[in-house]
């Protein structure tokens, strides 16, 4: 195995210079840096990360805990986070909680044991005891929340403007002539679900349309709940003429219910959903969606976390980055009611 001394000897520099090059220090002259980097490539040298972590007290690893890997929204976030981490020389460990509180507690405990430098967190819904999060933070480790804030704890956060996105979508359905718009809500304890409901209700009230409690149903951001809730509403005596799902998975469930009941979309029931997914414009009819910048959320969250770790972000208060979603109008809302 090639050692750092062999690299230094062949590059005709000191071991300290090689070490500074590996650390990215700006104190090394460009000429020397290029010479050392060329020798590193020639010898295929890889530094001992375990030994380096003992010396620097950093492992150059990040943890990422997401709530549901089966939801196509999250792999896009992961991709953005992974690209940013690799760009800065960090390795990303990804754990899935399946929206389960106990799995989330175990995941944070495991990542602390692995001595990650920081954490990207999408918190599971319904948690009342956040001790595991405060313990992680109080141990000196940085946390950046992605998509969802942690109830009762103000942490760095990167999210989309959920209220604005819901307003855009509801206004679009109103512009198509719909007045009975069913809302398929996500997990009630999750702030993003609350914000999307808030945007929906605000827009109806501003348009002079009463909010009908019978048209608001709460699920859990999963396909099965979207299917079940949509079917219930569409079988009522006075069903909605349009449905707005809080995420794409619930939207797919709604589309399944529409088709199973022998209804046409958008002729009988219009459908729109929060979240763009890779295959959302392939299924028929092509879905109108509020597209969150998922990749950018993952990338920006990781950049913020690394900036905290490396001392480039010094804000004494938590940083909240809010990204703007985009309404993509497609076939599922194409028909205008007379």
Descriptive report:
This protein has a 6-stranded parallel sheet with strand order 2-1-3-4-5-11, with helices on both faces. It has a 6-stranded mixed sheet with strand order 7-6-8-9-10-12, sandwiched between helices. Helix 1 packs across helix 2 and helix 10 crosses helix 11 (248-260). It is α/β, with parallel strands linked by helices and 338 residues long. The protein folds into 3 domains: 4-47, lambda repressor-like DNA-binding domains (434 Repressor (Amino-terminal Domain), Orthogonal Bundle), CATH 1.10.260.40; 57-160 and 294-322, Response regulator (Rossmann fold); 162-292 and 326-333, Rossmann fold (3-Layer(aba) Sandwich), CATH 3.40.50. Helix 11 links the parallel strand 8 (242-245) and strand 9. The protein has helices at 4-11, 15-23, 30-43, 49-56, 73-87, 101-113, 131-138, 162-175, 191-206, 223-234, 248-260, 294-309; strands at 61-66, 91-96, 118-121, 142-146, 156-160, 181-185, 216-218, 242-245, 270-274, 288-291, 320-323, 326-328. It is elongated and about 85 Å long. It has 12 helices and 12 strands. The model has no long low-confidence stretch (mean pLDDT 91).
């Amino acid at each position: 195995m090639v050692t750092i001394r062999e690299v230094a000897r062949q590059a005709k520099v000191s071991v300290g210079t090689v070490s500074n090059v590996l650390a990215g220090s700006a104190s090394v002259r460009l000429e020397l840096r290029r010479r050392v980097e060329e020798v590193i490539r020639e010898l295929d040298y890889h530094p001992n990360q375990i030994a380096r972590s003992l010396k620097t007290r950093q492992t150059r690893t990040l943890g990422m805990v997401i709530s549901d890997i089966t939801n196509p929204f999250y792999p896009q976030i992961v991709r953005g986070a992974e690209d940013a981490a690799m760009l800065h020389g960090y390795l990303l460990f990804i754990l899935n909680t399946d929206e389960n509180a106990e799995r989330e507690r175990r995941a944070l405990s495991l990542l602390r044991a692995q001595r990650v430098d920081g954490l990207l967190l999408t918190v599971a819904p319904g948690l009342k005891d956040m001790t595991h999060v405060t313990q992680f933070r109080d141990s000196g480790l940085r946390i950046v929340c992605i998509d969802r804030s942690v109830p009762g704890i103000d942490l760095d956060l990167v999210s989309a403007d959920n209220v604005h996105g819901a307003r855009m979508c509801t206004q679009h359905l109103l512009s198509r002539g719909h007045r009975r718009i069913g809302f398929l809500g996500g997990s009630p304890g999750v702030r993003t679900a609350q914000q999307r409901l808030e945007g929906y209700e605000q827009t109806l009230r501003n348009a002079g349309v009463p909010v009908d409690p019978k048209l608001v149903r709460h699920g859990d951001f999963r396909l099965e709940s979207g299917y079940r809730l949509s079917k219930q509403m569409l079988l009522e005596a006075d069903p909605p003429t349009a449905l707005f799902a809080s995420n794409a998975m619930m939207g797919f469930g709604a589309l399944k219910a529409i088709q199973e009941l022998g209804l046409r979309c958008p002729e009988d029931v219009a459908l729109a959903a929060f979240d763009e997914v890779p295959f959302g414009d392939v299924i028929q009819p092509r879905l109108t969606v509020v597209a969150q910048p998922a990749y950018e959320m993952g990338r920006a969250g990781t950049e913020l976390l690394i900036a905290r770790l490396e001392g480039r972000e010094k804000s004494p208060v938590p940083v909240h980055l809010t990204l703007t979603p985009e309404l993509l109008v497609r076939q599922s809302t194409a028909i205008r009611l007379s």
